[in-house]
Structures are given as C-alpha cells and as structure tokens.
Design goal:
CATH architecture of the largest domain: 3-Layer(aba) Sandwich
Strand content: 15-25%
Radius of gyration: 24 Å
Structural class: alpha/beta
Helix content: 25-40%
CATH class of the largest domain: Alpha Beta
Oligomer: single chain
Largest sheet: 6 strands, mixed
Strand order of the largest sheet: 1-5-4-2-3-6
Distance between the termini: 33 Å
Length: 548
C-alpha cells in the first residue's frame, strides 16, 4: 500500500497531466497498488521519489508517469525552464532549433517544447520530421540559433527517451549551465502546469536543413577519391538511413547492401535487445550480410545516428572494430592527409592518439568523457571517444556525428580497396609503427545504483597495486588536475597497463576501460598475443577488485 503523502502527490500529478496515455497508466498503477500489487507500489514510489535530474546530458530516463520519468509534464517543465534561462541571458527573440528522433513520444515532446519556447518569446524552429541528432546539431550554426534541443535517448532501450540541450556554438551544455537550467526547471515545477503558456506561431524546418547538411557532408570527400566500394549498412531501426542515402548519392559512392530488417525507424527496436552497435549481437545481421556479399566494410549507425561503428574481415574472420581502433584509423587518415589542428580524445580512450598526433607534430589534449568536452576543444581537428563517437568536421558539428564519420570511412575504405589493401592491413601498419595498443572494457549493469557507489568506494579504499604483473599508480580523478576537471573516476597507470574506472553518465552501469600498450616490435603477431594474455589477466584482476 502507498501512504497518504504519496497518494496526494499522485493525484496532484494526475490532475495536471495532459497526456491521456500516462494518466491512464497512472490510474492503473494506483489501482494495482491499492490491490496490494507490490510491483505497482514499487513503481509508484520510484516514479515519485524525486524529479528526473537535469544534468550535462539534459534529461534521460524511462517513459511513464511521475516526476522521475520522461513524460509531457516533465518535458514541458524542462522547456519552460530552458526558456527562462535563455531569457535571463538576454536571448529573447533568439532562434532555437528543436529536433526529435523516431522514439515513442519524441515528436510530441518536441511539439510541446516548440510551443512553450514560442510563447516565452523565443523563435523555435521545429523540425518537420524525425532527423538524426547531428543534422539538428548542424542546424544550430546553420540557422544562427542561440540554443538547440534534440528529443532522443540515442542508443538506450526502447522504453527510454531523453532531452538533449545544446548551446549556440553547437556544443552540448556543461556546468554551470546545466545547474542554472535545472534551477529554472525547479522553479517552474513549483507552479501549476497550466501556468505555462503555449503558442503555435513558429516555423517548421526540414528540406532546407537536410539539403545544407548533405551538401556539407558530401564536401568532405576529395574529388580524387575512388568511389567503388562493396559495403553493408544498418540504421539499427533508427533515423539515419534516409540521410545516409542522400549523402551517398551526393558523394557518388556505390550504394550499400542494406540490412532491411533494421533500415526503417521502429521505436520497438525489434531485432535487438539494446539498439547499440556495441552490444553483443546488435550487428549480427550486418555481419551475416557482409559475409554473404563479401563486403569491404560494414557500417552501423545507432538509432539517432550520432555514433558510428564498423566491421571488417580479418584473418580470423569478420568482427566489429573497437571504438579505439576506428578512432586510430580516422586519425591516421587525417594526419596522413596533413590535416592540422588539435587532436583530442576522452580520458577513457586509448592513449594511441596522443602518440600519433605527436608523430605529426600536432597538438593533442585529453578531455573528460563526453562530447560536451571534446566538442569544445579549441582548434579541434579530430576528436573521439571509445564509445564509437567521432567528430570529423568540428567546424560544422562540434559533436559526435555518425554520418560524416560514415563518409570518412567510405573514403578510406574505397581508397584502400583501389590500392588492393584492406582495413585490417591499415590497422597492421598503425600497430607496426606505433606499437600494439589493445583496449577492452568491463561493464556491469545494475538495477541498484548503490552498488556502483559501493564499488567506487571499495576501489578507492582498497586499490590494486599491480595489474598483469606490473606495479600501477592510482590517480583519483575526483581530485581534478591541471589537465582535467574533477570527475568521479579512478585511473591506474603502469608502464604497459592502464585502467580507468567510472560510472556511466547515461546508463546504470559501472565501466572499466583497460589498455595494454607494447612498444613497436619486429613480430606483430607475437606482440598481439602477448598483449592479449596481459589483457586477460588485467581484466580478471579488475573484475575481482571491483567485486561486481
């Protein structure tokens, strides 16, 4: 049973909820709780435990009724809070592009946002259809906006949705902007929802935005690049395919073999348990098709197409490249082409990029995890994080962009094909020059977030002093440094082994990022075997140390 205080919160929420679906869901949960259904009682307590936190990733969480869920009440309060923040900064009348993906309720949330921004004296530019996140992010600078909003949960499970906020420079929000907006949202939430004014006086954008983005993306390809390529593409049930088709047509590359089961937007993501190319099994259909057609490369976007993953054939068979491997390939290609500027990656990514940049006398910087940090590096030439996020055109989109990354991959793969070589060959060249940099990850998904807090406390209190047979030094990233602001994480650093442990910023996971680095040798196969053995040992030791 639920207590009277919670019942009053529920009934107050029910009275102001404009969405019949969540109102009905709340009625059902309340009736079941009154009938002694413990699962319904637990869900109500969780959904009303507190507001869904607005942070540097904006909002993200499961759909449903209550202040701790994604719904029209929460989104309306967020939009009103954002509007108040922008007005406080003197941006009344400024343009704010509002985009959305194909997830459940994304279009409804975007419509609510546009109506509230318009009534607050801003000029929302509402996208007329579901579009990839990087296309909307591109629109911020293209239309001269003061901010941008994308309703998306990226690669989260189907029951989730989210609300991502960008600044006028095209980058994601960072502190203290997040807390300033959160304070405005809290003030709005203290008043009745009916007090939030709405207006439908705003324009739609669509074809003009897409045309400008396609023109920019296609301009990245050199006229001398060969266009012949045998490749496979999957959109992972997201919104990338339509834009990818236009970009491929504009660049002149051969059309891909499509994973038809995953090519159309579908918020249920029926072929995958998690619509993230990194998850086991997510790109199995693409791998099967690639083998069937003897492809040069297979490329996957996540559902909102801000991430990109590739798979290729190796002597041992087809496999997906790690995020660090693709980061090294893209950086190597840009460095060979003489692209100058700062090269950057997150602290949890491989250290290989710093070595590569130094070899070409280019500046390098390490950032905190997330493109809210990578995208704002001054003079950024290329930035990436191991979670298959890449920025290859910072001047247009200072954020991860899975579509322009796809374009860069097509260009590299087509050039290698014309030379009679493969992606595996290029990775061998990189390893031979810079040494083997093997990376791996441990991820622990939990239902109880306190387990993550306990694991982080345990690893700080009783840290391993050696990994894979060599001493390691503990660096508590929460203390900050001249190079990095404070963040909840720990770094273990040795001569050959490097490990970072941190909680995920978007999912209920504790993540452990491992690297084994060997100096360049004469026998690449032997070096890789040694690195694999060291990695297996380090993984086992870290799993025991974390106790999850």
């Amino acid at each position: 049973m639920i207590d009277q205080s919670l019942r009053e919160q529920i009934l107050s929420w029910r009275q102001q909820d404009p969405d019949p679906a969540t109102a009905a869901a709340l009625d059902d949960l309340l009736a079941r709780a009154d009938a002694a259904d413990q699962a319904a009682t637990d869900e109500l307590r969780d959904a009303f435990a507190g507001p869904l936190a607005f942070g540097t990733a904006g909002l993200r969480g499961p759909l449903g009724p209550g202040p701790a869920r994604m719904n029209r009440v929460v989104v309306s309060q967020a939009a009103a809070g954002l509007a108040a923040h922008l007005r406080e900064l003197g941006m009344a009348g400024g343009r704010v592009i509002v985009g959305f993906d194909a997830r459940y309720n994304s279009q409804v949330f975007a419509q609510d946002t546009a109506e509230i921004l318009a009534a607050a004296g801003l000029l929302p530019l509402l996208c007329s259809r579901a579009l990839p996140t990087p296309v909307v992010a591109f629109g911020i600078r293209h239309f001269g906006c003061v901010a941008g909003v994308v309703v998306t949960a990226s690669h989260n499970p189907p029951q989730d949705n989210g609300y991502k906020v960008y600044l006028g420079d095209g980058s994601q929000i960072i502190p203290p902007t997040d807390s300033q907006i959160a304070a405005q949202i809290a003030a709005v939430a203290a008043r009745p929802l009916a007090d939030i004014a709405r207006s439908d006086d705003f324009p739609l954008v669509g074809d003009d935005l897409v045309a400008a983005y396609v023109a920019r993306a296609s301009s990245l390809v050199s006229p001398e690049t060969p266009r012949s390529l045998n490749w496979v593409y999957t959109a992972m049930h997201g919104v990338g395919a339509a834009i990818v088709d236009q970009v491929v047509a504009a660049t002149g590359f051969d059309q891909p073999h499509r994973v038809t089961e995953q090519i159309e937007p579908d918020p249920a993501f029926p072929t995958v348990p998690f619509p993230n190319p990194e998850e086991p099994g997510a790109i199995d259909l693409a791998l099967t098709l690639a083998q069937q057609v003897d492809a040069d490369v297979a490329i996957a976007n996540d559902p909102d197409a801000d991430r990109c993953a590739i798979a290729a054939c190796f002597p041992s068979g087809w496999r997906m490249l790690t995020g660090d491997e693709l980061g090294a390939l893209l950086a190597d290609d840009l460095l060979r082409a003489g692209v100058s500027g700062t090269y950057a990656c997150s602290v949890v990514s491989s250290t290989l990029l710093s070595t590569m940049a130094a070899a070409y006398h280019q500046p390098f910087t390490t950032t905190l995890t997330g493109f809210k940090w990578i995208g704002r590096v001054p003079g950024l030439a290329f930035g990436y994080e191991e979670a298959i996020g890449y920025c290859t055109d910072a001047a247009a989109v200072p954020d991860k962009d899975g579509i322009t990354t796809l374009v860069r991959v097509l260009e590299l793969a087509a050039r290698l094909r014309a030379e009679g070589r493969t992606i595996a060959d290029r990775l061998d060249e990189i390893a031979a020059r810079y040494g083997v940099h093997l990376t791996s990850q441990l991820a622990f998904r939990v239902a109880d977030l306190s387990l993550i807090t306990a694991a982080m406390a345990r690893i700080r209190e009783v840290p391993p002093t050696a990994l894979a047979g060599e001493p390691v030094e503990l660096v508590d990233l929460a203390l900050g440094s001249a190079a990095l602001p404070p963040t909840d994480g720990v770094l273990f650093s040795g001569t050959r082994v490097r490990v970072v442990v941190r909680p995920s910023g978007t999912e209920p996971k504790l993540k452990c990022y491992l690297q084994v680095k060997l100096a360049p040798g004469t026998e690449l196969a032997a070096d890789r075997a040694e690195a694999s053995a060291l990695m297996a040992q380090a993984r086992d030791e870290m799993a025991r140390a974390l106790g999850l």
